[in-house]
Amino acid sequence: MTTDYITIALFLLVSLAIGLVMLLIPFIVAKRKKGPPSKYDAYECGNKPFETPRKIINFKFFLIAILFIIFEVEMCIMFPYVLGAESLGLTGYIVMMIFLGLLTIGFIYEWKKGVLDWD
User: Fold this and answer.
1) What is the pLDDT of residues 59-109, one digit of tens each?
2) C-alpha span between 96 and 85 (Å, rounded)
């Protein structure tokens, strides 16, 4: 019984050691070259910032991102269903049609709200 715990502890120690080595190698190997102060500004890749980072972003951008995530999740659920559709039978088919119906209702709702219009 204690050998099981020793195996788990050894696994944790090895994974912790690998993680620490991966974090420390760049500090040891990387060249330390000082650049202009503007190089360290956030999100500007070494260029001088040309506008304030507090710019208001259109909310439709976030709705489109949520729509993309919804359909990405749909594909993640549909793929295993298609592979095992024969073994699920009529109940699996009905459940999948309900799932697709709900997604279709959500898509129609977003379409009617004008989320997909970029005017």
Assistant:
1) 777 777 888 888 888 888 888 888 888 888 888 889 889 988 988 888 888
2) 10
CATH number, domain at 91? Answer: 1.20.58
Q: Does residue 119 belong to any structural domain of this protein?
A: no
HEC sequence for 21-76: HHHHHHHHHCCCCCCCHHHHCCCCCCCCCCCCCCCCCCHHHHHHHHHHHHHHHHHH
Task: For residues 39 and 55, give the distance between their C-alpha atoms in angstroms, rounded to a whole number.
Answer: 21
Please give the residue range of the domain that contains residue 27.
2-113
Classify residue 99: in a domain, yes or no: yes
Count: domains in the chain = 1
pTM: 0.46
